[in-house]
Amino acid sequence: MAHFNWSPKIGDPTIGGWVTVVLYLLAAGSCWITARELVLEDIASNERRAWWAISALFLALGINKQLDLQSALTETGRVLAHYQGWFEQRQLVQLAFIALVAIICLTAAITLLLWTRSAPIQTRVALMGTTMVLGFVLIRAASFHHVDQFIGQRILGLRWNWVLEMSGISLVLFASQCRQVGIAKSVSRSVHLNQGN
Hints:
By secondary structure, the protein is mainly alpha-helical. The protein has 7 helices and 2 strands; from the N terminus they run ααααααββα.
């Protein structure tokens, strides 16, 4: 019988792990500010909701990153596989899970893009980055051996794990900052037009 071998701990105590957490928190804060500015400007509720949702998700992912909660999920799956007798066939289950995550993320990306089709490009880019990050996190949680090997390898001294996750987070952070600049320009233009009247 397999035992549950997980306890709360710092998930990735490396510099890369902490940088990833800081990026998650910066992106969450920036998305929250973007959503708040959209409220103040009374701009499209779907777009506002998207920024609020990204902010909440990235805050949760930042907390998860250092508490290593996805490892608890992986360990639960391992114990369940042993208990139900399909541990030896777990690779098929993992492949099916990865395929399902890919389909869900692709469907979510298309749905979100349609939902926000009238939103500025920055919002759509943020949603794509969010989908990328979420897909990566879910696939990493599946703990498929070949995926674990790949993301543990290094490119230019950086683990692929960091490169993939930080790229998606940075994309969202960049899109949020650009959207804030767009809102500020719109406000400035409105003020300028009102003063001209």
